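Retro notes (design track)

What went well: tokenization of the new backbones is finally stable.
What didn't: we kept losing track of which sequence belonged to which structure.
Fix going forward: every design gets posted as structure first, then sequence, in one message. First example under the new rule, 315 residues:
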């Protein structure tokens, strides 16, 4: 198997590359960056080789700025884009990043037309739609990281609040990866028990937890300059699920055509069955009235920004 990371010289791209190299047996891991970033990414690859040697792991790391080298990739991850600062929203990145994502997506379709395309660049819901339209690939082969990372953040916060092993928490976030994300608290369970029936639920400040999930990325950026480990391991989760054909139900950004609440022509985070063919099916979800309303708001917000971006880049 061959995996390519476009934008491997960035913080998230480099961390994701190491996570994948350490955990997934591959014939080749291609680290793609712009030519002026090649010295940095070559340094990253040498550092990775040293660390992997300590664990007796052999992987072929290839560094390149030649887009044709992505040929034969089974999975292509796009992390390239303008970095977000703590005073920027994901929406502030929309137009400049759309131009970058559109360019690379067209080249993925040209040189690696059989690959699964995973978008990480923010705002990821809009960028997933840009990638889908630019590449012309089937919608099942284009997905975004988005709410998978949000779901992991929610699981972590719930586990810490209730002092429970994170493996006992089953929850997910849908909708937008941003202000209009929708935590599905009505179906969240801890140890198989619905959250509202779990012990000490009365001490649980729902709104505070939701705000913390929404602002988790901003808080990390404010404190250390960039998000790194969370996105990197979330990317690893999705890549290994695809490469190993694990058929897991994970929440990723995908193009909706009426499958959930009749919403169509927008890319949003929803539960899907993920495997070697990409998104094999979208999983319908039951939402309470508040969650349905919030999901519709997310759809409207993402559609509005997507339409603006499409006009700006003439897509």
């Amino acid at each position: 198997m061959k995996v390519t990371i476009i934008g491997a010289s960035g913080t998230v791209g480099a961390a994701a590359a190491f996570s994948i190299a350490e955990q997934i047996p591959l014939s080749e891991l291609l680290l793609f960056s712009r030519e002026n970033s090649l010295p940095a990414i070559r340094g990253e690859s040498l550092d990775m080789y040293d660390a992997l040697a300590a664990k007796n792991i052999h992987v072929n790391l290839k560094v390149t700025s030649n887009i044709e080298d992505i040929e034969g990739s089974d999975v292509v991850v796009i992390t390239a884009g303008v970095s977000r600062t703590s005073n920027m929203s994901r929406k502030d990145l929309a137009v400049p990043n759309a131009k970058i994502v559109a360019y690379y997506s067209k080249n993925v379709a040209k040189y690696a037309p059989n690959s699964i395309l995973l978008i990480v660049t923010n705002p990821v819901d809009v960028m997933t739609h840009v990638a889908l339209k630019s590449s012309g690939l089937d919608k099942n082969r284009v997905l975004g990281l988005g709410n998978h990372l949000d779901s992991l953040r929610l699981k972590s916060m719930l586990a810490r609040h209730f002092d429970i092993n994170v493996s006992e928490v089953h929850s997910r976030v849908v909708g937008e990866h941003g202000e209009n994300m929708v935590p599905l608290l009505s179906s969240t369970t801890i140890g198989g028990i619905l959250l509202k029936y779990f012990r000490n639920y009365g001490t649980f400040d729902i709104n505070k937890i939701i705000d913390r999930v929404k602002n988790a990325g901003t808080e990390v950026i404010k404190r250390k300059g960039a998000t790194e480990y969370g996105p990197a391991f979330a990317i690893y989760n999705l890549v290994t699920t695809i490469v190993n054909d694990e058929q897991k139900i994970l929440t990723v950004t995908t193009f909706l055509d009426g499958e959930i609440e009749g919403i169509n022509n927008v890319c949003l985070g929803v539960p899907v069955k993920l495997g070697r063919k990409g998104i094999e099916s979208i999983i319908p979800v039951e939402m309470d009235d508040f969650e349905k309303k919030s999901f519709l708001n997310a759809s409207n917000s993402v559609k509005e920004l997507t339409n603006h971006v499409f006009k700006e880049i003439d897509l």
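Added context from the reviewer: Residues 2-145 form a domain with the Rossmann fold fold (CATH 3.40.50.720).
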